[in-house]
Amino acid sequence: MRRNSNKIRIKKPAKMQYLPKKTLFSSKEIIFRSGGRAKVFNISSKVQIFALVFLLVLGIWSAYSYHMYHKSDKLKYKLNRTRDAYAELMSDFVAVHKNISSMFDLISQEDISDELEINRYLQQTQVIEDKIKQMTDEKDWLENEDVNLRDAILERDRAVSERNLLLSKIKQLETSVQKLEASEMEILEKVERLSETEAKKIRDAISAVNKSLKKQNKYFNPDAGGKKNSTGGKFEAAPEVDSKDLNQKMQDVFSKIDDLNYYREVIKSVPVGKPVWHYVVTSPFGHRADPFNKKSAAHKGVDLASHRGNVVKTMAKGKVVRAEWGTGFGNHIEIDHENGFKTKYAHLNKMYVKKGDIVSQGQKIGEVGSTGRSTGPHLHYEVIYLGANVDPMSFMAAWK
Length: 400
What we know:
alpha+beta; two-stranded antiparallel sheet; 400 residues; Glucose Permease (Domain IIA); 46% helix; 20% strand
């Protein structure tokens, strides 16, 4: 009988597989789970090494910066301490120097008989010597390990940086000054042109007046006894600037402004312009037929027909020497302009001024009327220079 023998086979365990050993900077994975989803971020070994190097450099730089800042404070502290010690030493030195000087004065006068005073001064000098020795012992503060070459370089770099910034600002300032000078030159040129234009207008008016005066063998000199011989007042020098061209232009402009101001004052006393705005010349200057008897007669002024009540103005400043009624002129005014010129205004409806009044250029003095020997409302206007009547029309046309 065959015996069935069942052999139990034991399965040998599989050989264990060993995983390679991971290094410090081996690749790593970071898994983020959100909303049931996972995101995997791989960090390579290179990135890990770069991050570590960056952190090390940052730490070293922070430590170095703190070290330099700390040393800089110590440097400033030692500098301030040395300066304070020096100031105190100088104060003591001055005091002792004065005392020693007075002591020698006393010795020279033989007023000191004991050694107490001398000992006191010697003690004071000893104190100063001790302070000097103390400072000498600390003279190596610049060579001390706490203040090294790097601190000096740091201070130097800071000073250079501030210097460069200052130079940049100075350059910007110089550019601004140049632009400002150009603008000032342009303004001065405009002022010069305006001054010349206005002064020329006044000189042309005076020239036109002189053409009329020449017919009477007269001449008005605007500079006579005035421009150079009758000036005064507080002295105010024209300002000077560093720019030679700008300074010269300023001097020229101020000179022209002075001339203009002078001629402005001159023209205020010369009766140029229209005494009444709207008018019609009904009788010119010179000989004419008398309106009443038709006989030839001299006419010392001009008749300017205008509406009754129209304003009459004086064209120059002066003093009212007559404001009265006359049989021929009716209401009439005479003004002395105190430079050889006089003006008369006749047949006025109303007079706004009286004898003795001081009037200014352009001031209202009355109204057009028809008083006295008149055939209708008009202004009889006369201009007199050095006692001779001259044609008023040239004065009226000289100023527009």
